[in-house]
Amino acid sequence: MQKDTQIIGIRTIIEAIKAGSTIDKVFIQKNTQGELMSSLLKLLKQHSINFSYVPVEKINKLSQGNHQGAVATVSPISFVPLERLVEEVLSKNENPLFLVLDQISDTGNFGAIIRTASCTGVDGIIIQKHGAAPVNATTVKTSAGAVFKIPICKVDHIKDAVFYLQASGIKSFAASEKSTKTIYETDFKTGLALIMGSEEKGVNPSVLKLVDAIVKLPVYGEIESLNVSVACGAILYEVVRQRL
Prior knowledge:
Layout lengths: L1 E2 L2 E3 L1 H9 L4 E7 L5 H12 L3 E5 L1 H7 L7 E5 L7 H11 L4 E6 L4 H13 L4 E5 L8 H6 L9 E4 L2 H10 L3 E5 L16 E6 L7 H4 L4 E3 L12 H16 L1
Parallel strand pairs: 3-4, 6-7, 6-10, 7-8, 9-10, 9-11
Antiparallel strand pairs: 1-2, 2-5, 3-5
Helix pairs in contact: 1-2, 5-9
C-alpha cells in the first residue's frame, strides 16, 4: 500500500523500484531476513538507493499497516542527471551558479537552502545519494514550494561532481571557517559552484583538497559558527551583490 510519499511492504517496494519510481530512501527493520528481503537488498544496491537499518519502533512509527520490515519514502520530484544539468545550464548561461550540498542531513535546513537558492538565481543543486536529507513533505514545506522550481541532481560522490564541474570550466568555492579568506575578498563574478558542508562536520576534507578556493564568513561574538542555511544565504547574496 502507499501512504502519501511512502511505499510500505517489501514486495511493493520491489515492484516500485522495477517500475522506475523515484525512491528516496528505504528504512529496513533490523534483523529482518528471508528471500524477499534478500531480493530487495540486491535491488537497492543495484540502483544505488539509499537505505538504513532501523529498530522496529521506527518502522511502526512510519507505517500503519503490515510493513513486512520495510518502508520506502518516495521523492515528490524527479532528479536530473549531473551531465544533463550542467550541459543545459551552460547552453543558456555563461556564468552559472551551482550549489553543492555535502551531506546536509536536516530536512529543515535543506528546504530553507532550496528556498534561498531559488531566490538568488541558483541554476541547480547537487546532493549526494547517501547521507543527504530526503526530499519529503518537510522539505517541500520549508522550501515554500521552491523544490519544484529548481533542478536537483544526486551523485554517488561529491568529489566526482566537483571534478566534473571543474572540467566544465566552473570554479568551485567551499565554505569553511578554517579559511583565512572571507567572501568579501573573493571574486564571485565567474561561473561557480558553492559547496556547503554538513551541519556537524562541514565540507569533507577530501573535497576541500579539490576546490579552487575556500572561503568563510566573518563571525564575531562567542558563537563560532552559523546555521548552515543562514551561512548559505549570506554567501549566495554576496554572489548576487557582486553580479548586480
